[in-house]
C-alpha cells in the first residue's frame, strides 16, 4: 500500500491508493444552516413557496449529491453508500433551517466528503427554492461533527 497522500513521487496530484486498506464500517455526520428572513421561513414552513416543497426537494438533492460526490470533488473515491439520511429542520428561534446528514459505507475510505457535499447541496437547494422571497439568505456552519471507523478511528467536534 502506498502512503496515503494525494501527491505521487513526482509531486503531482493523484488519487490515493486505498487498495491495501481493509474494508470497515464508516460513518460521517455533517451539519450546516441556512439563515433567512422570518417571512421566508414562515412561507417555507407553511408550504407557500411557488417552487413547491423546498424541504422535500432539498432532502432528495442532498441524497443525489452524496451519491455523485466522486464526480464533483477531484480525487475523491467513488463509494457505495449503504445508508444516507438527510434531515432538514426549521429553527424559528434562529430564523434558520438546520441540515444534518449521516452517511455510511462499508469500504476502504471514509464518507466525510459525501456527508459534507450532501449538506451543502441540500442547503443550496433551499436557497434556490426560496430566493424569490429572500436573496439575503446565508449558509454557514457547514462542518463535520462526527466520524466513526477507519484507520484514524472515531472523532467528534
Description:
The chain starts with 23 loop residues before the first strand and ends with a strand. The longest helix has 19 residues, at 112-130. Strands 2-3-1-4-5 form a five-stranded antiparallel beta sheet, with helices on one face. It has helices at residues 38-46, 54-67, 69-72, 112-130, and strands spanning 24-35, 81-91, 96-107, 138-148, 155-156. It has one domain (22-154): Alpha-Beta Plaits (2-Layer Sandwich), CATH 3.30.70. With 157 residues, it is of the alpha+beta class. Homohexamer; trimer of dimers.
What descriptive keywords fit this protein?
157 residues, lyase, Cyclic pyranopterin monophosphate synthase, 4 helices, 5 strands, MoaC_bact/euk, Alpha-Beta Plaits, Mopterin_CF_biosynth-C_dom, alpha+beta, five-stranded antiparallel beta sheet, molybdenum cofactor biosynthesis
- What percent of residues are in strands? 25-35%
Low-confidence stretches: none
Report the order of strands and helices: EHHHEEHEE
CATH class: Alpha Beta
Overall outline: elongated
Number of helices: 4
How many domains? 1
Radius of gyration: 18 Å
In the CATH hierarchy, what is the architecture at level 2?
Answer: 2-Layer Sandwich
What is CATH's topology name?
Answer: Alpha-Beta Plaits
Q: Tell me roughly what share of residues is in helical segments.
A: 25-40%
Which whole number gives the mean pLDDT? 90
Q: Kindly report the spatial arrangement of strands forming the biggest sheet.
A: 2-3-1-4-5
Structural class: alpha+beta
In the CATH hierarchy, what is the superfamily? Answer: Molybdopterin cofactor biosynthesis C (MoaC) domain
Main beta-sheet strand count, sense and barrel state: 5 strands, antiparallel
| Amino-to-carboxy terminus distance | 30 Å
What is the strand tally? 5
